[in-house]
Write a structure and sequence with these properties.
alpha+beta; Arc Repressor Mutant, subunit A; 3-stranded antiparallel sheet; 3 strands; about 65% helix; transcription regulation; Transcriptional regulator; DNA-binding transcription factor activity
Length: about 90
């Protein structure tokens, strides 16, 4: 199997930050969220949350849909949930 180096770099970069990983777990638990909910939950600024969401989106770990004036973020697919499950199992072992 050939691994795409660019995609691998983007994913490992996205996972190299505890807040981004926490955002992924939050989205997994809540199915979706807007920036305001993430700001309130993580007690951080809109630019900070938006920057982290962009990195996650660039790595294809999350995607967003426009809902009126806001964007709603979700995990990209079931593979991301599986990755989070594996990560949680590894951390807890």
């Amino acid at each position: 199997m050939i691994i795409n180096d660019k995609k691998l770099h983007m994913i490992t970069k996205a996972l190299d930050n505890s807040l981004r990983i926490k955002i992924l777990y939050y989205l997994e638990a809540n199915n979706q969220s807007n920036v305001s909910n993430l700001m309130n939950y993580f007690e951080t600024s809109q630019p900070n949350i938006s920057r982290h969401l962009k990195i996650l989106a660039d790595a294809n770990l999350v995607y967003s849909e426009k809902d009126g004036q806001e964007r709603i973020y979700q995990l990209s697919d079931n593979h991301v949930s599986q990755l989070l499950g594996t990560l949680k199992t590894h951390i807890n072992d």
